[in-house]
Amino acid sequence: MMYRSVQLVVLFLIAVVGVIESAAQSQYQVISVVNGGTVSGTVRWTGPVPHSLVIPISKDQEICDPEHHKSADLERLVIGPSGGVANTVVFLKDIRQGKSMDLPPTRQFLDQKRCRYEPHILLVPQGGRLEMKSSDATLHTVHMEGAASYNLPFPFPNKVVARPMSTAGLVSLKCNGGHVWMNGQVFVVAHPYYSVTDENGNFELTDVPPGEYQLVAWHEGWNLVRQEKATDVLTGRIVPRPLFSEPRSWEKTITVSANQKVSATFTISEK
What we know:
This protein is mostly beta strands. It contains two helices and 22 strands.
């Protein structure tokens, strides 16, 4: 009897999750946007710049460190010469209708090159596929946690594989092949109004239907919290892997008028 009750609860939860996912997919409607506006701006850093998080390159130095730097920047906070913050995700919150998906193809393809993820931040449509390959002649294993869960070995260079991204949300990337400094993020998104800031902190959203919106700037955590024990799947060695602080986000209200440009600046800091 107890087992039957547990079964019913599990089936109910599965059904609820399915309803929620279907509702999330149906919330956004594609329409013809003929008088859309443009939202552009910059994410800037203010105050003292934190020290970069670096970690020793402890494996496959000839592949991962051909220039003999001996350590890898974890790329958690990249600030340009003019103070712009790269790799910040800027998006419209809860937009219900607009243009069709036109996310940059380069943000939907993951390469493992010199033992780092390129690009560091990816954008994949909900229901789409994330394509991946390794350019390195060593074993990488892409481990995903969050809205998608996969553990994919890449024993051979330049072989492309793809996996569906069916649930909207954030997916964290790490390597289970002993390259503990490798890290990245995938945004699986239900609408196209997302942008990733460039090396100068600039972003742009185009063909936005007129209206009032919440504009959000999201950045992954850039502070080292602690290190966890990770297992190198090839050697079985236990290696320390960095864990980071929680992501941070900032919001502001904007009004988009027909065929007009809106400028928005986010100023972020350590505090």
